[in-house]
Each structure stands twice: as structure tokens, then as C-alpha cells.
Amino acid sequence: MKLLITGSSGLLVLNLALEAMATHEVVGVDRAKLKSPPFPVVAADLLGPGEVDRVLDEARPDAIIHCAALADLEACESDPELARTLNAGLPRALAKASHARGLQMVQISTDAVFDGTKSGSYVEEDAPHPISVYAKTKLDGERGVLEEHPEAIVARVNFYGWSLSGRRSLAEFFFHNLTNNKSITGYTDVIFCPMHVSHLGGVLLAMLAKKMSGLYHAVGPEPMSKYRFGIEIARRFGLNDGEISPRSIHTSTLIAQRANNLYLSTDKLSTALGTVLPSFSTGLDLFYQQAELGYPQKLRSYAQ
User: Fold this and answer.
1) Among 55, 108, 143, 254, which residue has the fewest nearby CB atoms (within 10 Å)?
2) Are 148 and 88 in contact (CB under 8 A)?
3) Sheet strands (E) in 86-236
4) What's the rounded Cα separation, in Å, for the pair 201 and 214?
């Protein structure tokens, strides 16, 4: 299968592409951030007139995985129009063009479409209630994709791993600060379900292989606070977890609102795949092993 993946320099895409290259032909779409990528990349700004059609006709993929987005929550609050264009308008345009060409499509969405007030886990049938510009525009993107391409997959995700810049995931934040003996905080009242990005890549490829469609929660199976997440990172790397201070999200100076509970049930996904999703401990072990094997340096070499 030939895969076209948008946003090639992003945390998810770079790791996903490396995961997919073993069994698929991969083509990326990027605005020249990658200097020496390990896979072919089409240079394009998909917001330009006619660019979506040009890229699809040039690459001729069997499926598209749309990851590119404005994912900085504060930036979305500052420029809601750009957020709407990137997070809602572009996915709809890609879905329409993909459907017209008979291509499979995966739209990457977010767990943040919920307001976090539910007790227990959210299932796919729960009504979303986004509380930030980012979340609202991503929800609009979900709906636009499924309207234009009913056979598409929409995957709500939350992931961590090593990135091109070294600053794109919460795991990197904890690791780099603790490695440099810097004191940091971790939110005790924000619950989420992190999945290692390489495991997420495998899940997305499996979903495509099974020709699944519709909405799925593609997150880790284990909920935890962001404070606990930091503690787990510290202990796995033998770093000082005493440098992480527990804190409430309500004491932060962040502009965009964050939900307290983003515990998403993965029962629908694991049932559809016929397998148990990788555990958090398995993902954390992989994150550690990648560091030991020089994987972060390998990623950075693609930008040099």
C-alpha cells in the first residue's frame, strides 16, 4: 500500500512513517522542514489553491493519513481563524478529494473534544463538548471528514515519543528538564491516556489494513495524571522524581482551557482490531530503549 502522510516533520508523522516503511511505500507532505528525510517528501502548502488536488494526483497514494494541524492550544486561541482553516477546513478538503479518488483516509483528531466533566471513561457515543479553540476546530474537522468521506477513519489520539526538535512531547519535557536537574511541575488533576507514538503508528496501520471506518479512540488503555506520567518517566530513566512538584491545572497561567478528565475507553478499538492495545509500561520501556539506542539523535539527523 502507498501511504501519503501529511505534516512529515511532526512527532506523529515522522515516527509513523518510520514504522510504516517496513511494509508500505511512504510519501510525506511537508513545507521543507526535513532536510534529509528517509522517505520521499512532496514539498507543498496544502492551503494553497489547487494544492490538495495537485499533491494527490502527483503522489497517487492508496491511502492518506492526515496528521498536519495547528496543535498548539495557545496559538489556536490567539489565531482562531488560522486554527479553523488548518484543523477544520483542510481536513474537509482532503476528505472530499480522497473520496472522489476512492482513497482510504485517516483523520487524526484529539481526546480534547470532551470537557472532562464525566465521571469515568468516555466512549465514542458520548457527546463531545470542546472547551478550547483547538478542540472546537478539531471536532469540526472530524465532522467535516465524515460528511465528505463516510468510509474514513477518525482517530482521537494522545501520544508521546521522541521528536525532530526534542520538544514536541510531554515525555521529552520531563526527560530533558530532569536530565538537566531542573525543577518542574506535573498536574495531578489532569487525567489522560498516553500511548507511545510507535505503538500508535502500528495501530493506525492495522486499522487501515482491516479497512475500518468511523470514529475510534486510539489512546493508551491506562489512564493516569500528568504528574504520575512524569514520575514514571523519571523512575524509568533513573532520574530524580523529587524534582517534580504536584500542581493543579487551575493554578496555571495557560490561556486555553484544559479538561480535567480525558480518560477515553478503547474497548471499541481493541474489539475491532481483535487484540489488546500495548500497555503503558510496554510503551515506556520502548521510549527508554530508543534513547539508549540513539533514536532521538537519528531523528534529529533528518533536519540537518
Assistant:
1) 254
2) no
3) 104-110, 153-157, 159-160, 184-187, 191-192, 195-196, 214-218, 224-225
4) 18
Amino acid making up residue 273: L
Dihedral-angle region of residue 161 (phi above 0 means left; psi in -120 to 50 means alpha; beta otherwise): left
| Radius of gyration for the alpha carbons in the chain, expressed in angstroms and rounded | 18
| Residue 233 amino acid letter | I
Residues 3-48 pLDDT 10s: 999 988 889 999 999 999 999 999 999 876 678 888 999 989 999 9
Centroid of chain to Cα 187: 20
Place of cell 526527560: 175
Contact 31, 45 (CB under 8 A): yes
CA atoms in the 13 A half-sphere facing the CB of 51: 13
Report the distance separating Cα 87 and Cα 99, nearest Å: 19
pTM, two decimals, is: 0.95
